[in-house]
Structure formats: structure tokens, C-alpha cells
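ok so i was messing around last nite and threw this chain in just to see what happens. nothing serious, just curious
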Amino acid sequence: MISKNNIKLIRSLELKKFRLAENLFLAEGNKLVTDILESALEVEFLFATEAYLESAGALAGRAKSIVTCSHAEIRKASLLKNPQQCLALCRIPAYTPTEAQLFSQLVLCLDNIQDPGNLGTIMRTADWFGISDIVCSVDSADLFNPKAVQATMGAICRVRVHYRDLTAYLEEANQRQTPVFGAFLDGENIYQTQLADTGIVVLGNEGRGIGPELTPLISHKIHIPAFSPPGQKVESLNISVAAAVICSEFRGRSARRQ
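result:
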């Protein structure tokens, strides 16, 4: 049975201040919770129906505390419109990235991304293209927002997100001569630009793009051209879609060189 105090705790994790105070985040849904149980992330509480626990078997034992409950109780505690058979409260991981992880591989760098759904989808994209680290500005959306967690579709188990002062981060990248690419409307056509196997790719805010304080630190401006008919007005790409296109081009170019 899920107690009133547990329901209060679960629902409080919708807000960042309570996530930080408890050092917990909420994950919902059979596949996501199973992915987390299979990963190195720590599960403090697992609230699940008998049917889910039976299907999970010994894996459920990775949770420090298991509460068996009905589907009706899950619905009462859940933040989702259509909850499934389980939800989990997990410890927020603390990552200490190495220099190699930040400067010697392909890294996504997100400047002031505000939509948690976009952040989660970008993480899912990074996971698909084998990008293990994302660096975010400190004013970007919180990865552990429930909407972001759901949008990762399990990538939260494999992709590390680091919140940093981006000016200091990119200044260090310049000192190390790490290529820094940035997505701009006036950038060079990405399909005609020389791309590196490693480097940092900066993506900007959904509305204003990359901040002016970061622009001087970007060594290669790139742009995804539109292929719509001349004169036809099209809106800009969603930031998560743009991330997928850019990652695909970087990885495709690298694969063709091998």
C-alpha cells in the first residue's frame, strides 16, 4: 500500500527544490523503471503491482525498498495521465567527468535549453548516436524534471549530463584546441562543412539561439539548410530535431572516413 506520506513525497518531486532536498527523482513506466533497475542508478523506493514484480523477478530486488500496491494506488500517486504498473524513486547521481570525456570525444553542449521534454529527447538522441556526455548551462532545464526523465526513454541510464559555466568550459576547450561547433542561422551549410570526429557541438535556446557571450568562443558556425520550395516560409527546426540531424551528420561523416 502507498501511504499518504509516500504519495506526498512522490508528488513533491515534480518541483526541483524538493528533488534537491531529497536527492531523489521520479521515474514512471514499466520499461523505464526496468531500464533503471538494470543500470548503475540507485533505486530507493519501488512502488509496483504484483504483476510487475512477478515479471521483473530478481531484478526488482535491486530496489532498497519495495512497496506492493494496486494499479489504482499507482494512478493516485502518478504524475502521468496513463500510468502503468510501477514507479520508482531514484537517487540523483553525482558525476565527476574526466578531461577526456569533456574534451576528447564528441560532446553536446546545451545553452539555456528551457523545455525539459526537449532536454530528455536530446539525451535520447545522444544515446542513439553513442554520445555519452552532455554539458548544459546552469540555467538549462533540470534533467531530473519528471518530463525530462520520461522523454529520455531510458537514456538517463547511459548518458551523463553535467551543468557548467559554459563560458569557462568553452574557453578551456579553445585553450586545448578542441573544435567547437555551433548551430547558427547564418552558419555554413553543415553538408558542405568539414566536420571533426571529436569536438563540442553547441545548441542554443529554443527562442534566441546561442547566447552572444558564447559566440566568440565558437570556432565553426554550422547551419542546417531548409530544402523547402523557394519563397515558402518555414519555421525553424525544433531543437531536439536539429540535434538529431547534426549528430547524424557528424557520425555519418566519421563512419565514411573509416
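not much to say yet. The chain has a mean pLDDT of 95.
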